[in-house]
Amino acid sequence: MVLTPHMLVGAAVGTQAPNVWVAFLFGLISHYLIDVLPHWDYLNKFEITNYKHLIKVFLDLTIGIVLILFLIWFEPQRIIILAAVFGSLLPDFLNGISMNFNSKWLRFHFQIHYKIHFLFFNILSFWQGIFPTIIVSLAAIWVLIL
Ligand SMILES: [Zn+2]
Fold first, then answer.
1. Distance from Cα 31 to the centre of ligand 1, integer Å
2. How far is the CA of 69 from the centre of ligand 1 (A)?
3. Over its length of 146 residues, how does the chain's per-residue pLDDT go in tens digits?
4. Number of domain units in the chain
5. Please, which residues have CB within 8 angstroms of residue 64's CB and are 6 or more apart in sequence?
6. pTM for the complete prediction?
7. CA of 93 to the centre of ligand 1 (A)
8. Measured between alpha carbons, how far is residue 98 from residues 6, 43, 93 in Å?
9. Where in the sequence is the domain holding 32, given as residue range(s)?
C-alpha cells in the first residue's frame, strides 16, 4: 500500500491510543495489516539514487503529512497520533534502507514484509487497486474527523 493510507490509518489508530508507546506499536501493526489487503503500489523497488523514485515517495509523503496535519491540528493528543503515524511508516522506511544498503536483519524484515503483500492477493493494477486504497483512506479520515 502507498504511504498516505498507511499514515492516515496510523493517525486513526493514534486517536484511540492512551500513550505514545501504544500508539507507535499499534501504528506499526496497522502497517502490516493493511498490506494484507489487495492494493496497487507505485514502486516495486526503491532506489535512493533514482530521482523518479524519490519524487514519487516525496509526493506521497507530502500528501500524507498535509492531510494529517490538517486533520489533527487541533487534536489535544496530536503527539500520540504522530507517534502512531511514525509507527505506521517504519516498515516501509526499513524497506527503503534494506533495498539500498546491505543489512542481514533488514533483509529478514524485508522478506517477511514482502510476503505479507502476497498473503492472499496479488498486486493489482492501478484501477483495481485504487479502490481499496481510497476506501481505507476514507475510513481512516472518517475516524479522524469524528
Ligand atoms: Zn508495507
1. 6
2. 22
3. 899 999 999 999 999 999 999 999 999 999 999 999 888 888 888 898 999 999 999 999 999 999 999 999 999 999 999 999 999 999 999 999 999 998 888 999 999 999 998 887 777 788 888 889 999 999 999 999 98
4. 1
5. 3, 4, 6, 7, 8, 85
6. 0.92
7. 9
8. 19, 14, 9
9. 3-145
